[in-house]
Amino acid sequence: MQIERKEKVGLLLGLVGVICFSLTLPATRIAVEYFGATVVGLGRTIVASILVILVLIIRKEKLPSARQFKSLVIVSLGAVLGFPLLTSWAMESLPVSHGAVELALLPLATAGFAILRAGEVPSLKFWISSIVGSLAVIIYAAYLGFGQLQYADLALLGAVIILGLSYAEGGKLAQELGSWQVIAWAIIIAAPFFIVPVFLNVTGEMLHAPLTAWVSFIYLAVVSQFLAYVAWYSGLAMGGISRVSQIQYLQPFLMITFAALFLNESITLFTILMAVIVVFSVIFGKNAAVVKKGLHQ
């Protein structure tokens, strides 16, 4: 009973994280117009590091071990460097709905790396639900006419791969280091390397950016880069990487909804239909058996 409750809490935390992440692309789309990809993609980490340092000092957290540091570098390369920078660059030329569809492949990337890094073996039921969810977003992408790949598309696909590895590694490490500690230390590791490139791309004109741009940037720095990861990694650690990762199938449709609210992008009946299919695939797969290598059911 206690294990079942823990898994349910993990799923809930995962959902909170996904909702927070779903605002990332819309916020990025707004911010990059005024600040540029480098400042938005890397500058958010510098701002987040200030909050993180205060939290680490107040809580008197111990330094990670050498073994944990290696895993943190992987998390940092994906969640702190690769994903923010690549998506910021892509959002300079692509609509949020486009990016949302491609990021829907993230659960499969996460589950695949979970097998390699965390030793999880998803069941056939899990893979069936994953395939159904993936087919739904592929059909959706084809319907919207996003068949031709651009450089920005390749950037998003690269972001999916590197973040999938980061999620799997971070979910595994969170079980021993703590959920928020994983992203906190990853931010600390990366932030010093971002100061120079961000400084070189800062201009005086940015001071005159509208309030919406500044609010979007602060959201990316405080929520998308730190607080959302706290909820997400907690969910991965408590509910299982492969199982909780399926909640990400909701993310593209949440992104599209937020894009409609904040960027006036349209929502069609077909979008709603695809969202329903994806939701049912998540419900079908969230209770699928996931076992560790070497263990028997």
UniProtKB/TrEMBL annotation:
Protein name from the UniProt record: EamA domain-containing protein
EamA domain: residues covered: 9-139, 152-284
Membrane association type: Multi-pass membrane protein
Transmembrane segments: 9-28, 34-57, 69-90, 96-116, 123-143, 180-200, 212-232, 253-284
InterPro entries registered for this protein in UniProt: AA-Vitamin_Transporters, EamA_dom, EmrE-like
Superkingdom classification of source: Bacteria
Alphabetic keyword roster: Membrane, Transmembrane, Transmembrane helix
Similarity field: Belongs to the EamA transporter family.
PANTHER family: EAMA DOMAIN-CONTAINING PROTEIN, INNER MEMBRANE TRANSPORTER
Species assigned in the record: Siminovitchia terrae (Bacillus terrae)
Compartments, record wording: Endomembrane system
